[in-house]
Amino acid sequence: MAAYDYEDAPGTYDETSATQRQASSGAPPSQDLGYDPNFVPDSVKSFVVHLYRHIREKNVYEIHQMYETSFQTLSDRLFKDTPWPSVDAVAHYVDNDHVFCLLYREMWFRHLYARLSPTLKQRIDSWDNYCSLFQVVLHGVVNMQLPNQWLWDMVDEFVYQFQSFCQYRAKMKNKTEQEIALLRQYDQAWNVYGVLNFLQALVEKSMIIQILEHEKEGLEQFTATDGMVGLLRVHCLLGDYHTGLKCLQPIDITQQGVYTTVIGSHISTIYHYGFANLMLRRYVEAIREFNKILLYIYKTKQYHQKSPQYEQILKKNEQMYALLAISLSLCPQVKLVEETVNSQLREKYGEKMNRMQRYDDEAFAIYDELFSYACPKFITPSPPSFEEPLVNYNQDAYRLQLKLFLYEVKQQQLLSGIRTFLKVYSSISLAKLASYMEVDESKLRTILLTYKHKTHAVDTDGKIISNADVDFYIDDDLIYVVESKPAKLYGDYFLRQIVKLEGVINDMDRVKLD
């Protein structure tokens, strides 16, 4: 495909002046007239013309401003309850440019999903548009630059619409004959293999794996790590946590990198990474990463209050606190959690966490509640059987994951008792511990083996890792207890004290001024 080398275009986009032109023209907002897909207000005309010009000029800063601010402002003012004008209505303002029209349609459908309820045909049309857009990216020579935020939103929305379609398709009970006919006709729309293949192809096209391996800068790569994060998210939705984490292996999750340049990408990565580790019993890794991202959000969320992603940031923040509460209840490694995060956690879930330690029916109900609130919206990717009586199966995947999770929680019930005794003794005979627990020695050995199994997991590299805060070994029928003692982080302690001292000094200075 030919390169898209855009020529210079005169003029600049001024959102205020565009708004004033719309008001002075006397043209009413489209929603007041009933939606007319061919009606293009002057402000929208100005928006697409200038966005097109900035894309041709590769002016990433202006593109970002228009995408992040102007598009949202116009949506709120003119298209709160209606779609934007159709792509056919605006195409002649942008020289019928194929790539720009694909990008415009991508935003058009994203706005539709956010503000309205898309029809089945619109869901299918959106899939076709993504196919065309990704084909251009993968097989064409696209000589343009888009902001990282837009690139991330594009991949994030692609996965969201896939998830939404699977949930929609699984609600078969009340489908009309026309909808069933469309599902039969377009049976390849939002096919799970097609979704995974596109995301994998984006990763390979960006060559981000080779870039990360050679420790080069990846900021210039189209969709770069977004494809990896998208793959992680899809595999989590499918309940395939091993494969999801494997897709993320080239990224050093402990370091700042290209995936952290957009806060939505950063939060989504850690949320799904932490959840996958939680479901694979790698509790220490989940706790460590949840702690870091929650501390980051705590320190930076005030800078994103005007961002369209702000509500999503707050939602994921609350979900990750719930997941952290679950992780710490199953693996009480509180020492891994920063003081600020721990304080917030105790304020939100302190009472529930205390009840979760009892492992009675009330405790299991709380585990159920927190998991259901914080887990991803699992999907069943397979198409329905149209021959059988039509039934809803949209909750099947969620119920299966919940069942597996609660089964794991019940298996942890015995461990709380053994952990309590191990914390009290530095060494104890098998016979004595068996009498304390009111079981025979054979049963105790089984419990101890279960403790070993449940407090250890296999990491992505195949190595066995420990989640235990208290471990042990047995020698001649004597149990020797080894309590993990993490290295003290003196640097963090001094930094916190310095911040507190600076606060006191500032308070004293204000008192002097008064």
TrEMBL record:
<feature type="region of interest" description="Disordered">
    <location>
        <begin position="1"/>
        <end position="36"/>
    </location>
</feature>
<dbReference type="GO" id="GO:0033290">
    <property type="term" value="C:eukaryotic 48S preinitiation complex"/>
</dbReference>
<dbReference type="GO" id="GO:0001732">
    <property type="term" value="P:formation of cytoplasmic translation initiation complex"/>
</dbReference>
<dbReference type="GO" id="GO:0003743">
    <property type="term" value="F:translation initiation factor activity"/>
</dbReference>
<dbReference type="InterPro" id="IPR000717">
    <property type="entry name" value="PCI_dom"/>
</dbReference>
<dbReference type="Pfam" id="PF10255">
    <property type="entry name" value="Paf67"/>
</dbReference>
<comment type="subunit">
    <text>Component of the eukaryotic translation initiation factor 3 (eIF-3) complex.</text>
</comment>
<dbReference type="InterPro" id="IPR019382">
    <property type="entry name" value="eIF3l"/>
</dbReference>
<feature type="domain" description="PCI">
    <location>
        <begin position="289"/>
        <end position="488"/>
    </location>
</feature>
<comment type="similarity">
    <text>Belongs to the eIF-3 subunit L family.</text>
</comment>
<dbReference type="GO" id="GO:0005852">
    <property type="term" value="C:eukaryotic translation initiation factor 3 complex"/>
</dbReference>
<feature type="compositionally biased region" description="Polar residues">
    <location>
        <begin position="14"/>
        <end position="28"/>
    </location>
</feature>
<keyword id="KW-0396">Initiation factor</keyword>
<keyword id="KW-0648">Protein biosynthesis</keyword>
<dbReference type="GO" id="GO:0016282">
    <property type="term" value="C:eukaryotic 43S preinitiation complex"/>
</dbReference>
<comment type="function">
    <text>Component of the eukaryotic translation initiation factor 3 (eIF-3) complex, which is involved in protein synthesis of a specialized repertoire of mRNAs and, together with other initiation factors, stimulates binding of mRNA and methionyl-tRNAi to the 40S ribosome. The eIF-3 complex specifically targets and initiates translation of a subset of mRNAs involved in cell proliferation.</text>
</comment>
<protein>
    <recommendedName>
        <fullName>Eukaryotic translation initiation factor 3 subunit L</fullName>
    </recommendedName>
</protein>
<keyword id="KW-0963">Cytoplasm</keyword>
